Amino acid sequence: MAVFTRVTEADITAWLDSYSLGTLLELRGVASGIENTNYFVTTSNGRFVLTLFEKLTADELPFYLNLMAHLARHGIPCPAPVAGKNNRFLGTLNGKPACIVSRLPGKSVTRPTVENCAAVGAMLGQMHSAGHSFGDVMDNPRGPSWRASAAQQVTQFLSAGDAALLHGEVAYHTQHTLNDLPRGVVHADLFRDNVLMDGERVGGLIDFYFACNDVLLYDVAITANDWCMDADGALDARRTHAFLRAYHDTRPFTVQEAANWPVALRVAALRFWISRLFDLHLPREGEIVNAHNPDQFKRILQRHIAAGSNTPWL
Q: Does the model's pTM come out above 0.85?
């Protein structure tokens, strides 16, 4: 865990008094993620996940919790927040905003197959469609303004070549935007570790705490940049085609989306290169355990730039 808040069995037992979830049977920390503290909680009523929010505030969290509740009601396998006896999803535990959600079946995969990618593509399309009826709105906090600001802040840690690549790409995306493409609710972080595969089907989409309103194709590109990527930073054609075809069969792409696919891949790679540089060089206070290597997304970005219009598509 990147920023760890310790929770004891006594802490969670007292906290559960505010819920109708039965008695505590097991509390176990989850050693993954870089934004929040998570515990698996098993009670006499079932299996749940407890999350303490290390960065997001109580004022910011209703969007995410309401979104997960909405998607769960519409058949998307995502964590369903549990309301306390006060009928609210959000509480406070050890001084941090906290919630408890349903625990979903399955586990993340490290080497996705063509079939895995197709399943994820179809589910992402279903999620985007279900999100159309969600009424709350949140602009992407890691959009163009954030990219420009964060890029300036990390420049001091970069070589001249990397700084030139970074600022050249930021400038490129001020001239080549995706603003005219279909928009809606996006997950914005649907990496392999945020999808639980239950056999060949998607058992759960998790970690919605970067979700926001943005261009849908941007979300598709973020997902492809992880699920369909080879070790050398290039898209695997078979996995990419399967992923995009399954998505398209659920929510058809527009002609404009197809034309902007290479741009979407580049801006999605840029966003994670910048955020990983920021997490590595300018970490917030606390214990950083899982700061990811920024070079992975620099390499992916470079491969997308080199591929140009030859980028794999449907």
A: yes
